[in-house]
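Run log, item B.
One chain of 104 residues. Sequence copied directly from the ordering sheet:
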Amino acid sequence: MKTSEVLDGAINLLKTCGWIQGGLGSFSQGYCAFGAIERSATSIITLTLAVLAAETAIGGRTPLASWNDAPGRTKEQVVEALVKAKAAAEACARTWNSFAIDRV
C-alpha cells in the first residue's frame, strides 16, 4: 500500500466517522489524525511513512498526536494537513518513479 493510499483512507475516515481529540478513536466515535492513519495502514512501514508525511505537512516540529490535540485545533485543519501530506507523498512517488525509470 502506498503512503498516499494510507493518507487517503485516513482522510475518508475523518470525513465519514468524525474527528476527535484525546484518544485514537474508533469507527463509532471518530478518529484523531494518528488514529485514522493507524486504522488505514496495513503495516508498521506504511504507518510510519504516512505519519512522517503528515508530521512534515504540519511543519515537522510537533508529534502528530500532540498537534491534533492542541486546543483550538479543528477537524478542517486536520483534514487539510492530511490532504497536503497526501499530495506531497504523491509528488514524491512521481519523482522517485521518474528517477527510477531514467536509470533503467
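Observations after the first pass:
- Residues 2 and 46 are 7 Å apart (CA to CA).
- Strands lie at 25-26, 30-31.
Flagged for discussion on Thursday.
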